[in-house]
Design goal:
Elements (H helix, E strand, L loop, with lengths): L1 E3 L3 H4 L2 H18 L5 E3 L4 E3 L3 E6 L2 E6 L4 H29 L4 H32 L5 E3 L1 H22 L4 H5 L7 E3 L1
Helix pairs in contact: 2-3, 2-5, 3-4, 4-5
Length: 183
């Protein structure tokens, strides 16, 4: 006999775990000094904070924080990270106790706001970088990819937190879990 079903009470820890990964990905993307964009020759790279050109063994770096678009990107990413941390704490508190519809929807809305802020920041950066620099071929690096990874996790978790409200009785253990049994 094969019994298949979803143990909802045990699955309540998957969502905060995903949010921890999103927080780590965001921190990596924000703190990366190796660059979000680099040219194929490895002579020019640009992170969220600075723009560097290598000339031999030396690097000539200038701060991007003088540019209004770079300050906007930094603000959007940092505000998104702070809201993500708040959403993580709320989800942890909500899932440790009796799960409520309001808490799940609040976390879902917060995560959607995070995804929206980071999406805007991750689009503003390459558009303005390409307007500034016209020479060579550039590639996006792993740090920029971590920013997109955090954004995608936040967007997915926001939908799950909003949809999980139909399963709250099973998560709290109030309803019997239905299994699919084959003989």
């Amino acid at each position: 006999m094969f019994r298949c079903g979803l143990a909802y009470p045990r699955c309540r820890w998957i969502m905060p775990l995903l949010l921890i990964f999103a927080i780590i990905f965001d921190i990596i993307a924000i703190a990366a000094q190796s660059g979000w964009i680099q040219d194929r020759d490895n002579t020019h790279y640009s992170s969220m904070w600075k723009d560097c050109r290598r000339m031999g063994d030396e690097s000539d770096c200038m701060s991007l924080m003088d540019e209004s678009w770079a300050r906007a990107v930094a603000a959007l990413m940092i505000i998104g990270l702070l809201i993500l941390i708040i959403a993580f704490v709320v989800s942890l508190v909500a899932l440790c106790n009796e799960v409520s519809v309001g808490a799940c929807i609040a976390v879902g809305v917060l995560l959607f706001i995070v995804a929206l802020l980071q999406f805007i920041g991750l689009i503003i950066y390459p558009v303005n970088f390409n307007d500034r620099i016209f020479e060579g071929e550039y590639e996006y690096t792993w740090a920029y990819g971590f920013g997109w990874g955090a954004t995608i996790i936040c967007l997915g978790c926001s939908f799950i937190f909003c949809c999980i409200t139909s399963c709250i009785g099973k998560i709290n253990g109030d309803e019997k879990i239905e299994y699919c049994i084959t003989r």
